[in-house]
Design brief:
Elements: H1 10-15, H2 24-33, H3 47-58, H4 69-73, E1 82-86, H5 97-112, H6 124-139, E2 144-148, H7 152-155, H8 162-172
Parallel strand pairs: 1-2
Length: 173
Amino acid sequence: MKYPIGIQSFERIIEDGYVYIDKTDMIYSLTHGGSIYFLSRPRRFGKSLLVSTLKNYYLGHKELFKGLKIDSLEKDWNVHPVFHVDFNGANFTVPGELEKKIRYHVSEWEKHYGLPCREEELGIGDRFTEVLRAAHEQTGRRAVVLIDEYDKPILDVLDTDYGLEDRHRNVLK
């Protein structure tokens, strides 16, 4: 048996034959019973794997779920526009890094949905709203926004740079 120690990619766990504890019936329940969730759990409790699983589910990667509980529950396997941001791996002790990372993602999504970059006219929040609107109009589906390691920009500077800590908190709002 291969155990997926440190592996946070659902796709890799399934494709490479690692042990996977099937809780996809709970994912089905989660995705059909509500709209906005905020999951706060301690480190190393599987949040990133859950985000990866949700991403693959919403992208309609049915083949990855073959033989799992959700396979018999889900009938439609609709593909949704997925906006995934992972704050892991960046150094948020550098002023402006958080804003740069968010601007990069929004710019890439604008390109993907054929939108002009309106950085001079609109704030980042309004630009993201336009991306979500375009995604819905082009696909006919509601968008899915997945944010992983949401607390890293604050934790990187917690109790060391109070100004940057406040700035990150306000940006994330």
